[in-house]
Write a structure and sequence with these properties.
By secondary structure, this protein is mostly helical. It has nine helices and no strands.
Length: 218
């Protein structure tokens, strides 16, 4: 069971410092604005790719000074296969359950419509089930969680990072849909002190959503 004495805040491991968060917040708009501007007329997938690539670059700038300590500070530590499998199964159950609410945000509808196009399926899978969850996990349950846990403990980190993850989706319907998943992924991060279970669960969840949209016409 993860506690506030977990590996993240022990002296032998480097926690995320406040200056890494500040660097990320400064670098993100500096990289995001030109990237989105360049892709503004190229469709949804190039725009999403530019958005998440800019966020990934900003993250690299933010944690770059940590060197080899950056990966464990972000949560890349062994977790075992059981929490990975359990985390993935429960994430899928949560996703199926929230779809029963009947909420269909416009941005999700547009993304799934793109995935239905055979010529764009591979790119949709790579961006929505690969790049997007990797970046979101690194930012919310890596950088943000790591800083909050090192300063205020893992309980605060779990709740605050989960709320931030949901709010970042902006549209109220989308926020309501992803909040339960965010809380579960955050709990996995806290329980295992590793980013791997939430990362794998997030990627599989998004991947199956893209496949379902493409093959089942949902």
């Amino acid at each position: 069971m993860a506690t506030d004495d977990n590996l993240l805040i022990q002296k032998e491991n480097t926690p995320i410092r406040w200056w890494s968060v500040i660097i990320f917040l400064v670098a993100l708009p500096a990289l995001l604005v030109p990237a989105v501007w360049l892709m503004r007329d190229r469709g949804m997938l190039p725009m999403l790719a530019a958005f998440f690539a800019a966020a990934l670059a900003a993250l690299a700038v933010a944690v770059g000074p940590l060197g080899a300590r950056a990966l464990p500070a972000l949560g890349f530590r062994r977790a075992g296969w059981r929490p990975v499998v359990l985390g993935t199964v429960v994430a899928l159950v949560i996703s199926v359950a929230v779809t029963q609410l009947g909420i269909e945000p416009e941005d999700i509808k547009q993304a799934m419509d793109v995935a239905k196009e055979p010529a764009l399926f591979g790119a949709s899978l790579a961006i929505m089930a690969g790049l997007a969850p990797v970046v979101e996990e690194l930012v919310f349950r890596g950088l943000l969680y790591g800083w909050l846990a090192g300063r205020w403990g893992t309980a605060v980190a779990w709740i605050a990072s989960s709320l931030a993850f949901a709010i970042a989706h902006i549209d109220l319907g989308h926020v309501l849909l992803v909040l339960p998943l965010g809380l579960w992924l955050g709990w996995l991060r806290r329980r295992t002190d590793s980013l791997w279970p939430s990362l794998v669960a997030h990627m599989v969840n998004n991947g199956l959503a893209v496949v379902a949209a493409a093959l089942l016409d949902v």
